[in-house]
Amino acid sequence: MASSVIRSYVAKNVDSLAIVGAVAVAYCGLKLLRSIWRGFSVFILARALGLSVNLKRLGSWAVITGSTDGIGKAYAFEIARMGINVVLVSRSAEKLADTAAEIEKKHNVKTKTVAVDFTAGPEIFDVIREQLEDLEIGVLVNNVGMAYSHPEYFNLLDDKVRVIVSVLSCPLTLMTRLVLPGMTERQKGVIINVASASGVNPVPLLTVYSATKAYVDFFSRALQTEYRTKGIIIQSVRPFFVSTKLSKIRRANLFVPTPTSYVRSALATIGVETNTFGCMSHAFQNWLYDLVPKPIYDRLSLSMMVATRKKALKRAAKQD
C-alpha cells in the first residue's frame, strides 16, 4: 500500500522532483568546486605568488613552546631557516640544548632556551618573562600540549585530566599575554596557536582533549577579531594526524604528513588564512567529514575511538 502511494506521488510530481534533484546536484557541485578552488588558492597559488607574510620583517626573535619534538620542533627549524632567532621553551633542559645546538649549526641564527614545566604553577611565567625581556619578538608559536595515552571514557580518567586542561589552555593564554603588548606597540606580529581538528568536531573518548582544543581555536578566532586592525595576525592551526610521538604514528603518508612538511605548508598560509588545517590533504579530510551527516559522524567517531581503546588496553595487558 505504502509503495503504491509513493509511486503515485512520484509519477504526479516527477517534474518538480527532477528540478529539486538538479538543484541539489548543482549545489553540491558548486560546493565541491568552491572547496577545490579554496584549497588550490590557499595551498598552491598563494605559495607560488608569495602571498604569505614575511615573518622576518616582524621582529628578530620568535618564541616556540613545546619546541623539542614534533610540530613544535619543526616550527623552530623552519622559522630559523628564515633567518629568525628562536627562543625554545620546553621542559627538558638537555633536549633544549641539543635542539638549540642543532639549529645554530644548521641555520646560523641565535637561540635562547627556557626550561620550564608547564604542568607547574603560574610562577613559571615570571621566569619566561625575564628571559624574554628586551627581545623584539615578532612570532609566537603556542604548541606545548599533551594528550591521552589512549581513548578513554570520561568517568575512567585519572587525575591527568586536570593536567591536560591546564597544559592545553593556560600556557597558550598566558604566553599570548606576555608577548602581545610588545606586538601591539610595534603594530606587527604573528601568534600561531596549534589547535587540532578534534577541536572542530567533538571526539568522544578524547572529550577533554577535544574540548580544550576547541578553546584554543575559539580563543584564537576571537583574538584575531580584536587585533586584526592593529597589524597582528593570530592564526589557529588545526591539524589532523601528523607523524609525531604525540600521535603515535611513525610512518608518514599522503594524509599523515611529517612535521616538517606539515609546518612548511602551514607557514605558507600565514596572511592567507587565519583558521587553517595547515595542508591540502588535511583540508580535504575536513571537507569529507563535512559531507557526513552529524548523527552518522558521531556514531562512526565513537566506534573508531572504542576500537582504538580496545587495542590499546589489549597491548597494555600483554606488556603487563
Can you describe what's shown?
- This protein has 320 residues and is α/β, with parallel strands linked by helices.
- It has two domains: 22-51; 53-295, NAD(P)-binding Rossmann-like Domain (Rossmann fold, 3-Layer(aba) Sandwich), CATH 3.40.50.
- The chain has helices spanning 2-12, 14-49, 70-81, 93-107, 124-132, 160-186, 207-227, 259-267, 280-291, 294-319; strands at residues 61-65, 85-90, 111-115, 137-142, 189-194, 232-237, 275-276.
- It has a seven-stranded parallel beta sheet, with helices on both faces.
- α4 links the parallel β2 and β3.
- α2 (14-49) runs antiparallel to α9 (280-291), α3 crosses α8 and α6 packs parallel to α7.
- It is globular, with a radius of gyration of 23 Å.
- 33% of the residues are buried.
- The mean pLDDT is 88.
- It is found in: Endoplasmic reticulum.
- InterPro entries: NAD(P)-bd_dom_sf (IPR036291), Sc_DH/Rdtase_CS (IPR020904), SDR_fam (IPR002347), VLCFA-Steroid_DH (IPR051019).
- Keywords: NADP, Oxidoreductase.
- GO terms for molecular function: oxidoreductase activity.
- Belongs to the short-chain dehydrogenases/reductases (SDR) family.
